[in-house]
Amino acid sequence: MLLAFCAAYWTFTIEFKRKENLQIIFPFTRIRKVGGLSNFKNILLSGISGFLIGYKLGYCVFNFHQFLINPQFFIFSIEGNWITAIISMILAGCGYFLKQRSLDPIKPGNIVELVHPYQLMDKLLFWCGVYGFLGAILLAKLERFDWQSWNNFKGIFAYNGLAFYGGLIFGALTYLYILMSKGITFKNAADIGSPGMMLAYGIGRIGCQLSGDGDWGIINLKPRPNYLLMFPDWVWSFNFPHNVAYQGRFIEGCTGRYCNELIYPVYPTSFYEAVICISLFLILWLLRPKIKIPGLIFSIYAIMNGAERFLIEGIRINPRFEIGHFHFSQAELISVLIFFIGVGGLFWSVYTYKNAKIVDK
After folding, report:
1. Up-side HSE of residue 265: CA atoms within 13 Å toward CB?
2. Comparison of pLDDT for 10 and 167, the residue scoring more
């Protein structure tokens, strides 16, 4: 996951700089208050961030053995350590205050700064990560909706995994909100982010494959096709030994925490998605300097994303919803919507671009 965030940071930054050099997007000015207690809001935010980090980190440190057994529960539960939270809050708030006081003049006033769009990446990565995780947790809970757990207060906060589309939707909306508030159009903002989102997803799926976190396919007992004989067996069907989801049977002679493997081999769909999405990223990366129509890169990304996920869902394990004669997963429904958003965006981008050219003439 960390590598996925790093990849997104790298690709987004390159695209911000390229678009600015082409004068498609522009730097903007902002007024920053300095001196005295004018930075109270930022000090408060630093304190809140320190509180949350200390609340969870202190609890994990003092219950380290239990944390190793089930890290997801410790991270996403409401449990925490109030003492380390308060200490961390005070240190973070005071640290920010002392740092700003050393940089800014003591006399209160305003400073006009020129900000390049790529300099927003730290802010974008942080807030998109926060709201993306919340969205991923929310859609994962809706996917496995259970009234009994919702009637139990602690059950609401229990960890039920992460849903990629929840992270994508909430993170993308946060990203668009921040950039559009800085004067960058929806089309340009969406184009800038599309290749990076595809790459980050592909790299994230490598982690799913290596860890065996449950994002695998249905049972696959079919003989391996001839065109895959040059590849290892696990490319076609895999038991995910030592998976972190603790699924399957115990591996004889194994010692340690992760000693399970699936009884029956399954399609390694996380590996397929990693290969497909990194390949699709390369296509988008090669297309981006050649496409001049705003919004077209995003539309192509949406079509690719929707089609890829819809097709892979056919061999993945996921909870299914039933409406009449239709049986579908949450991801299948969202992927179809994203696909048609891409198709509609493609026609809309071309149409508006041609009309703009006619008006210019």
Report:
1. 13
2. 10
> Worst-scoring range by mean pLDDT, 42-51, 219-228, 290-299, 330-339?
42-51
d(CA 109, CA 231): 65
Do the beta carbons of residue 1 and residue 204 sit within 8 Å?
yes
**Helix boundaries (H) for the chain:** 2-21, 40-62, 64-69, 71-76, 82-103, 121-143, 147-151, 153-156, 164-180, 186-211, 269-287, 296-313, 330-360
Side-chain-facing half-sphere of 163: CA atoms under 13 Å: 24
User: Burial code of 216-252, b = ≥16 C-beta within 10 A, e = fewer?
Assistant: bbeebeeeeeeeeeeeeeeebbbbbeebbbebbeeee
> Tokens for 148?
């009994």
* 7-31 confidence digits (pLDDT tens): 999 999 999 999 999 999 999 888 7
Nearest CA among 272, 213, 208, 206 for reference residue 237: 272
Dihedral, 151, 154, 159, 162 alpha carbons, nearest 10: 50
Angstrom distance (rounded) from CA 176 to CA 168:
12
Contact assessment for residue 261 and residue 248, using Cβ atoms and an 8 Å cutoff: yes
Q: What is the DSSP-derived secondary structure letter of residue 212?
A: T
Report the alpha-carbon distance of residue 85 to residue 81 in Å, rounded. Answer: 6
Beta bridge partners of 327: 322
Q: 113 is written with which tokens?
A: 């700064």
